[in-house]
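Hey,

The postdoc asked me to send both predictions to you directly instead of through the lab channel. I've kept everything plain text so nothing gets mangled by the mail client. Protein one:
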Amino acid sequence: MFSKIKFDIKNICSFCIILVVFFMVLIYLKAPLFSDEADVITGAWLVTKGYVVYKDFFCHHMPLPYYVMSVPLFIYKNAAVECVRGFYYLLLFLYFVFINSYTKNGLKNIWLLIYVLILFLSFNLFKGYWILADTFFALGALTIFISVLNKPKCDFSLKEMAAVSCSIFVCITSTLISVYPVMFFGLYYIVMRFLTLKKLNLQDLKFLSIIAFPFVVWGLYMLFTGTFDDFWQNGFLFNTMYYSKFTGNDTPLTLIIKHFKKLPAFFEPSYALIFVCGFLFYLIKLFQKKEYNLIIFSLLFVYLLNMRMEQDFHCTAYYYVLIYIFVIMAKQFAQCCQKTYLKHLFILSVIIFPCIFFFNSFCLTHPNLLWKLKLIKHPVLFASVLQKRYIKPVDKTEYCFSERDKIWAAPLNPIIYFNLRREPANKNIFYLPWQAAVPGENERVIADLENGKVKVIFADLESSVWGFKFKDYAKPVYDYIKQNYDKAPEYGSNVYIRKKV
C-alpha cells in the first residue's frame, strides 16, 4: 500500500508549506486587534441584528466588508474575534483554490503555494492579517492583474469576464481608493480592444453589461432599503466635506497629481526592496519580449494600487500583486537553472528571506508569542482572551445592565459592543474629530444619551486622535458625561455609570 505513494520533492514541499501557513494562521488569529478591524467586526455583528449600513449606524467606509463578515456571525452568534478571523482565512483558502484553476500564465500548484507562503510571511510588513477594506480590495486587484496576464489583449472568455466583473465590484465596494486602478484597467481594456479590432463590438457590450450587473443589484438593494441617500451622505459627501479636512483637503484630482509627483519614492530602499527588484526584473523581461502593453499596464496598475505610498495596511493590494510578480520572476529564474539541485537551492533561498524577515519583525517583537501559542491547547481560553484583554465586563446584575440596555463607547473602541453583545445608544459606534465636525452632531449624541437614559458609557475622555483631544472636539459631549456620569474604575478602565437621580 505505502509503496504506491509517490514521495517526490514537490509533494513534500507542498505539504511543508501548507503546515507552515496553517501554523502562521494560528498565530495571526491572536494578532492584536486594530480599531478599523474592530469597526468591521462590530458593524458585521450589527448587520446580524437587523441594522443597515449607513442608515442605522455611522460608517464612511464602503459596505462590502461588513456584509461579508456578517456571515460567520449569522452562523454562530456567539463567535469570538478569532472565529470571525478564521472565517476570513477560509475565504482566502477558497480564493486561492479558485486562482489555481483560473490562472493560465501566472502561478499554479507548487508555485502558487510558494506565493501564499511568502505572502503570509510578509503580512507583518503591511498588517495583512487584519480584516479591513484593503484586504478585500487586494483580492479583487490580484484577480484583475491575473486576468490581464491570462489575456494581455483583453479578449476575455465569459468566465474571465465574470471574474473581472466580480473583482471590480469587490474593489469598489471595499474602498473608494480602488477607483484609480480600476479606471486605469478600463482605459487599458478600451485601448487594447481598439488596437486589436479598431472598434468596440457586441462582445465589449456584453462585458460592460456583466460589469454593470452587480452594481445594478447593489443599487436596487439601496433603493429597496431606502439607504441610497444615507450612502450618498456618509459614503461620499461626508468624506469630501468633512473627513478630507483632516487628510489634506485633497480632491480626487489633487490626490492623483500628488501621487504621480511621488513616483521617485517608488524606487527608494525599503523593507520591500527585494520585491521591487523582482518587479523591475519583470519589466526588463517584458521589454526583452517586446510586450510593451504589459509593461505599461503592470507599471501603472501596481503604482496606482499604492495611492497613499505608505508602509501599512493601506498598501495591502499593492503587496499582493507585487509579491505575485516577484514569485513569477523567481519561477522563471528557477526554470533557467540547468541542475536540479541548483533549482531547489534557488527556490529555498527565495523562501528563506521572507522567513528571516518574519521572525525578526514579528516573533522577536512579540515576546509573549509563546504564551499565545500555548492558548491553542486550551480552546475555551483561546476564544475568550481577546475579550478579557480589552475590557472587564460590568456586573450586569448589580447595575441592572440587562441585555436590552444599550451602551455607548467613545472615541475609538467599537469592539466593546461586539464583546458585550450590546447595541449602541447612538449611530456613532465610534466618535472621531471628523464626525464631531458635522454641524449639530454633538447635540444629537447628547440627545440620544439623554432620551435613552444610557446607564453605562465606555469612554477615554482624556484621549486624543491625530492630535485632537476628545474634550476639545467633542466638548459638549465631554461636559455632558462629566455632569451626568460617575467614573467606576473598579469595573474596568474608562467605565462611566449614570448617576442615580
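Protein two:
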Amino acid sequence: MACTGSGVQIPSAPQTNMNLKYIREIFNQTKDLIGSQSGIAIISIIQVPYVVKQLGPSKYGAVVILIAVASLIFRATHSNNSDAHLLALKEGRSFSTESLFFNLLTGLISFFICILFFSNSIILNSSIGDYFSAEILTSSLILYLCSRVVQTFSETAKALLIYKNELRKYSFLEFTTVFVRFFAIIILLFNNPSVENFLIAQSIYGFTYGILGIFLVYKYEKIININFVNLKEYFELIKSSYKKIRYDQIIGLVPQHFDVILLGIIIDIQAVGIYQFAKRLVEPINYLVVTFNPWLQSQLKTKPNEFKINTFFKQILVPIFIFLGLMYSIFGDKLILIFANSDFLNSYQPMLILFMGFSTYLLTFWIRQLLLFNDLIEYHAYGRIIYSLVFLVLAIFLGKAYSASGIATALSIAMILQKAFEYLIYRKKIK
C-alpha cells in the first residue's frame, strides 16, 4: 500500500495489478455463465413488465399463487437433487440412468400431491378460493404440473455438467430454456392475456428444460436399462446426502414461496401482485448467485478448503453489492415506472427492503457450498429453521399491519439472521 501526504492509504501498483489479474481470472472462468445469466436477466427485465401489464395486478397475483403452490411441493422433493448426484459422481460412477429414474420418481410424487392439494383448495380464503374454484385442475394447470415432472430430469444434467466442468453447456441449458419460455409468453399473452396461457407458456419451459437435460446427459453418459442392483446401490449412495439436502430445502421453502401465499390469505391477490413485482425487481441478485454457484462448485469439488474465499468476497462480491445498492436506492422508483406503471409504485418500499435481505444472501451464498463440500450441510438446514421460524412469526404480525412491506421486512430480517448463523458456523467449523 502507498500513503498520501494526508495519511490516506491507496493501493500500490503491484497490488492493483494483482487485483485486476484476479478479477480477469474469475471473469474468464465464469464468462459463459455471466453471458447466459446476463441474457436471462435481460429477458426477465423485458418479460416481467410485459406479463404485469398484460395480466394486471389481480391476475398476476393469482398466477403467482398457483405457481408458488406447485413450486412449494415440487421443490420439496427434488430441488437441488443435482447436489446429491454431484456428490455421487465423486465416487467414480456415473449412475445417470438411476439419477434420471430417481428424479422421475420424485416428480411423480410431487405431481400427485399437487393434484390432491388443488382438489381440496377450500383451506384458502374466499378471494383465492373463489378464483381457484374457477381455474382449478383445468387442462392448462394439469399440463403445467406434467411439465414440472419432466423438468426434474434437468437436475441430473446440471450435476453431470458441473462435474465435467462443462460450464458452457450448463449456460446453454439455462439460457435456451428461459428464452423458449420468454418467446412462448410473448406469443400466448399477446393473443390472449389469460392465466391459462401463462401456464401453457410455463409448461413449454418445463418440457424444454427436461428434454434438453436428457439430451445433454445422453451426450456424455450412456443411458441403459434400469437395473435393480444398480438402482439400490445408487439409493444407498445418495441416501445420506439426499436426506440432508431435502431437510435443508424443505425448511427453506417456507419463506421462499409461502410469502406470497400468506400475503394472499391475510390481505388480497392485488397485494400479492405488488409484492411479487417488487421481488422480481431484485431478482438480478439471484441471477448473480446462479452465475457463481456452478463455477464455485466446480472449484470446490476436489479441494474445498484451498479456495481463497476472502479474496473472492472482497474483490468480487463487495463491489457488486455497492454498485447494486446505489442503483436501487437512486433509480428504484424510476425502474418501476419503466417496467410497469403507476399502479405498481407501491412496490418501491418493499423492493428496497427486499434488497437488504437479497444482498446479504449474495454476500454469503458461498457459505452453503463450503458446508456442502465439507459434509456440514445440516448446519445450513439449521440456519433455515431460524429463517423459517423468524419469517413466520414476523410475517403474521407485520403482514397484517404493513401488507407487502411487512412481508418484505419479515423475509429480509429472517434471511439476515440465517446468514449470520451460517457465518458463525463457518468461522467455528471450517475457517
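Summary for protein two, as requested: The longest strand covers residues 2-3.

Thanks,
C.
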